[in-house]
Amino acid sequence: MKVGHFSESYRPCVDGVATFIQDFVPQLDSLGFRGLVYTSTPGRKENNVRRIRSLPFPFYSNYWVSYFWIRQYARLAREDEIQLVHIHTPFMAGVGGILASKEMSIPVLGTFHSNFTNMARAMGSTPYIYFVSDLFNRFGVGVYNRCQLVTAPTESEREFLVRSGLKTPVEIVPPGVRLSQLVSEKGRIDFRSRLKIPDHAKIILYLGRLTVDKGVYLLLDSFKGLVSRSNVYLVYAGLGPELKALRKEASRSKWARRVMVLGYVKENHKASLISQADVVVLPSRGDTFGLSLAEGMALERVVVASNRGGLRDWVKDGFNGLVFDYGKKGDLLKKIEYALSTDLSDMTKKASSWALNTIDISATAKRFAEIYQRLIHES
């Protein structure tokens, strides 16, 4: 069966959706579902990728949108003779997927990866931000309402979609992470030597897109409370619109030598970086899932998550990680201090086993393969 994956986000863009698709498609191929990716992101030529003409998105750097070329999605899908549409972003690529499904009379599945309302509102509470976030949300729900089925990563995100007006049935399917492969890659690079961090020092790691909504500055502010502990380092890894500003902010203070903003880290180096950290932190208020936390769990690191978005549905305080109250000042610092000063090896071992058995990409691919078969059978 040929499945078309429609998404604004794909490599060389580096975010959770792009990472998921590039890991997910090969897994489906092994199950007999040949994946073809239809994306507006410019990049190198690949046999199974169709790159649609596009222009940069003005509000969020590194994203491209096919404003005037939506019909190209449907045209290329017809030429490829796909049998099922899978929408991963509900914007122009999503509309292109809907057009393809209508013109070809084939099933269409939508997956909700990103809560753009929470992401936007984390950046401020102005009337303009509320207006834009609501507009994006309504547009996205409108696209998902034209699908036969929608999947969401957690129950909180399913409830958000229903509150937003979604009428299409929703099933909970975790996004899946290539955890088994990640564990096998952890010894490739000695990041402590490369970054000149002493062996006895503690490393707090943030891994992901550098954006305001993901709490990168909240983490930096919390780190100031650890200034008296000279053996603690804060490392940021990832790209995003806040990269330059974060580097500038981190370089201003007396503890600048202990804050490192690395930028992009290669996928096959990521496991080494995570495994050499002591704590992996995602202080986001808008994430639907949080792939870096799953990766931290698999590699037996202590993970610290906020109690917002979809994180609160699967990161359980004391079971597979630590959870801080986003709305309580100083609580993130408190959780990090606890993680650095307490032996939590029993928790991290259990968390690793749970993650590898529950949210590895292979398990997610099998779940989606069942959904594809059901949709084809029902159409």
Key phrases:
alpha/beta, Rossmann fold, 7-stranded parallel beta sheet, 379 residues, single chain
Sequence-ordered SSE layout with sheet pairings:
Layout: E1 2-7, H1 16-30, E2 34-39, E3 49-51, E4 55-56, E5 64-65, H2 71-80, E6 84-87, H3 92-104, E7 108-111, H4 116-121, H5 127-144, E8 149-152, H6 155-163, E9 170-172, H7 179-184, H8 191-195, E10 202-207, H9 216-223, E11 232-237, H10 243-251, E12 259-261, H11 267-275, E13 279-282, H12 291-298, E14 302-306, H13 311-314, E15 322-324, H14 331-341, H15 345-358, H16 361-378
Parallel strand pairs: 1-2, 1-6, 2-3, 6-7, 7-8, 8-9, 10-11, 10-13, 11-12, 13-14, 14-15
Antiparallel strand pairs: 4-5
CATH fold field value of the largest domain: Rossmann fold
Question: End-to-end span in angstroms?
Answer: 14 Å
Structural class: alpha/beta
- How many structural domains in the coordinates? 2
At the first level of CATH, what is the class of the largest domain? Alpha Beta
* Count of discrete alpha- or pi-helical segments spanning 4 or more residues: 16
Query: How many β-strand runs?
Result: 15
Strand order of the largest sheet: 3-2-1-6-7-8-9
Low-confidence stretches: none
Q: Kindly estimate the percentage of residues that lie in beta strands according to DSSP.
A: 15-25%
